[in-house]
Design a protein that fits this description.
flat
């Protein structure tokens, strides 16, 4: 459906924002070219999105939904002339429940809610996998690295996994916020709770039984 397409575009936007933050202001020509290609690809997806409302009519800030500090993105995003990652996708959750009802689009609300639940479940599942991978890396790679070269490589692997953790945490936070806009039920509120930073940390002691 067009709603599932919109959700996929939102995930691509978050991934691009995380990548822009990672690179920062000091970037190589190759990195800038890669970001430009991602921007063009994302803009093409947005242009092809089939929806009736114009994003300019919406008052939603995607930066508020990121796991990282939104202030980290505001400066770096200004360095790119094309910023499709900041475009608001006109989904029912962004249009608002009242507006959907006035426009005879009330049937779209439970449809997006169902898709959002699946999106939230996927994000939580991916978070568990990457956090487990991070713990395993500490036990099997970081702690056993003897040379400086191996330690550098090991920590690069940890950094890569941590970036994946940040991405899926941001996706879950965004998804939950959109579900709240769709009038989340009490049972769903108990199931999909806010994600805390403490929950994204692992114990390195657990990773090493001899510690």
């Amino acid at each position: 459906t067009w709603i599932s397409t919109g959700l996929a575009i939102e995930e691509a936007q978050i991934a691009l924002l995380v990548e822009v933050r990672r690179i920062g202001r000091i970037s190589t020509e190759t990195q800038r070219l890669d970001i430009a290609c991602q921007c063009n690809r994302l803009q093409g997806q947005i242009d092809g999105f089939d929806a009736d409302d114009e994003p300019d009519n919406l008052n939603v800030d995607i930066l508020d939904d990121l796991d990282d500090d939104p202030a980290d993105f505001t400066e770096t995003s200004d360095t790119w002339t094309n910023s499709p990652e900041l475009t608001v996708i006109p989904l029912p959750s962004n249009l608002g429940v009242d507006r959907c009802r006035r426009c005879m689009g009330e049937d779209l609300i439970p449809l997006e809610m169902s898709l959002r639940e699946g999106q939230a479940n996927d994000a939580l599942h991916n978070l568990r996998i990457h956090l487990c991978n991070k713990a395993i890396l500490f036990r099997t790679t970081v702690r056993q690295a003897k040379s400086q070269a191996l330690k550098t490589w090991a920590w690069s692997q940890v950094t890569s996994v941590q970036q994946a953790v940040s991405l899926h945490a941001s996706i879950y936070t965004k998804t939950r916020k959109q579900m709240m806009r769709l009038e989340l039920g009490q049972e769903q509120l108990q199931k999909y709770k806010p994600l805390l930073r403490e929950q994204l940390k692992i114990s390195t002691v657990v990773g090493d039984p001899n510690a």
